[in-house]
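ok trying this again, last paste got cut off
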Amino acid sequence: MPAFSQTHETTIDAPAPTVHALVADFHEWIKWSPWEGLDPDLQRTYDGAGVGASYAWAGNSKAGEGRMTFTSITPEQVVVDLEFLKPFKAQNVVTFDLAPAGAGTKVAWTMAGQRNLAFAVMGKLFFDKAIGKDFTKGLASLKAAAEAA
């Protein structure tokens, strides 16, 4: 199966610990995730804290259904296993890399995984652009939330 990886970056005028706190706690994602608001009746389930903590969601056809689990958390990087259940099944790895950038923090948000051949073609035509827009929106919201903190 073909592999894919997509990274988007921004620089945030806030210290890394402020940004890290928003990324390394699923409860904080409601403040910046680009997928918040897709379903006003979204059902969320949180379990645990730190490495091993998980967040599951179930919603309408726009929000879908899935689960995320923190697999590694360091001051410089947060890694998440992402499992989509609906509207299609997929398993990806999401990584947030944080690096000093002057008085602020450079954030690189990457999603990587493998796609079957049909999804690889559809990814090039549709998914990658949609994911790119979502990541751009999410990074802008993360920047706003961290800079307001």
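PB: full thing came through this time. Residues 16 and 105 are 5 Å apart (CA to CA).
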